[in-house]
Write a structure and sequence with these properties.
This is Protein kinase. Keywords: Kinase, Membrane, Transferase, Transmembrane, Transmembrane helix. By secondary structure, the chain is an alpha+beta fold. The protein has three domains: 77 residues, Phosphorylase Kinase, domain 1 (2-Layer Sandwich), CATH 3.30.200; 138 residues, Transferase(Phosphotransferase), domain 1 (Orthogonal Bundle); 132 residues, no CATH class. Helix content is 47%, strand content 12%. A hairpin with a 5-residue loop joins strand 7 and strand 8. The longest helix is centred in the last third of the chain and has 28 residues.
């Protein structure tokens, strides 16, 4: 193998693009001062064993663990012609083009999180963009520092607070913090500020709980998530298709808007019919109501002063969809905290829609009761 290019590396590892036969690869090895230290070689061995099965179009694939003449033990990874994210940012790209980059990074992280892996070191230094097609390629390894080597400030700002102090076990929210910093780095418009702020909250409980929630906020619409199925390609590897769909809260609420709109339309149609009905029919209805008072009315109260019964018929159309959505949230939840936040966000968004659609306090209370009862039922299961 002949060296083509050396990639920037500030820790104990060094990264070099090598030409092997008629194609290029990345060699991830240790700098000469660390090659003879067994503890670092063991880390390299463990990393290869853990990630060699990972196969995703936006992550550089591990190919083999190999002894080389000039670099010692190396992890060999696939490579294609790329430029670092810093070069991409220096170019002139539209908001939509940069948003596509963010989505690809998020998809790569989601793939890793689905396999119980947290990157923990996401920064522009490990993100590359292909020269053909502008496809994201991420280096999946954590740079390590030893002796006098210190992590530079330009990458330290991408590290989540809990990853710096090492006091807790890291989860997906550490990568979501880093992803928010990457969005800043891409100089996205101010309209992305709410998403960035939630990603980069100091307290990890205040961040998006997972990539699904992040993508829903980023894209403001229900989207079909691309994921993966096994299959043969021309290289004998694995291709990716569609396996799992993320819950898009905004899309769900939009669907429920349709249901509530139907109910409002029916209510108005009924009101119009009543207004145009013959006077004798209205009198007959009033007399019937007066003769059959509700529990809240006393005998002898006339119809003019009667309190109308709250119409909760909208729940007949709304609650089946709500139950289906809650079933999906519970089925896909990753931990109690994530579940509670998703249910709360779903409830708040839906109730806001109902309020905007003109439901009165009694109707909203009826919805709260129905929602609460089914949610309690799901918790008890």
């Amino acid at each position: 193998m002949t060296e083509v290019n050396a990639l920037k590396s500030t820790g104990i590892y060094e990264l070099k693009v090598l030409k092997e036969a008629n194609h290029e690869v990345i060699a991830l090895g240790m700098k000469s001062a660390y090659r003879d230290r067994p503890q670092y070689k063991k880390v390299l061995d463990n990393d290869f064993a853990r990630y060699k099965e990972f196969d995703h179009p936006n992550i550089f694939k591990y190919v083999e663990l190999k002894e080389t003449e000039n670099l010692g033990t190396c992890i060999i990874m696939e490579w294609e012609d790329c430029r670092p994210l810093s070069d991409y940012v220096a170019e002139s790209h539209s908001e939509e083009e940069k948003k596509a980059i963010i989505n690809q990074i998020a998809e790569a992280l989601d793939y890793m999180h689905g396999r119980r892996c947290v990157h923990t070191a996401l920064s522009p230094s490990v993100i590359f963009v292909t020269t053909k097609g502008d496809n994201v390629k991420i280096l999946n390894f954590r740079q390590r520092y030893a002796d006098g080597l210190k992590q530079p400030m330009d990458t330290l700002k991408f590290v989540a607070p809990e990853a710096k102090d090492g006091t807790v076990t890291l989860d997906a929210r550490a990568d979501i913090f880093s992803l928010g910093q990457v969005i800043k780095y891409l100089n996205m418009p101010l309209s992305y500020r709410p998403v960035i702020d939630e990603c980069c909250s100091f307290g990890r409980n205040e961040r998006f709980p997972d990539i699904d929630a992040f993508l829903s906020a980023l894209n403001h619409q229900k989207r079909s998530r691309a994921d993966y199925h096994e299959g043969s390609n021309t290289g004998g590897g694995i291709q990716f298709g569609n396996k799992r769909k993320g819950l898009a809260l905004v899309g769900v609420i939009a669907a429920l808007v349709v249901l509530t709109a139907i109910w409002i339309f029916r209510q108005r149609s009924q009101a119009d019919d009543a207004a145009n009905a013959p006077q004798t029919e209205q009198v007959e209805n009033i007399d019937a109501n007066a003769a059959n008072p509700t529990d809240s009315q006393s005998v002898g109260t006339n119809a003019a002063n009667a309190t109308p019964t709250t119409d909760v018929s909208f729940l007949d159309e709304l609650m089946p969809q709500v139950k289906t959505d809650l079933d999906g949230i519970y089925a896909k939840a990753k931990g109690k905290k994530s579940l509670n936040k998703k249910v709360a966000n779903y409830y708040k968004g839906l109730r806001k829609v109902l309020l905007q659609r003109g439901l009165n306090d009694d109707q909203l209370q009826a919805f709260d009761k129905a929602f609460g009862e089914y949610n309690a039922q799901k918790k008890a299961e």
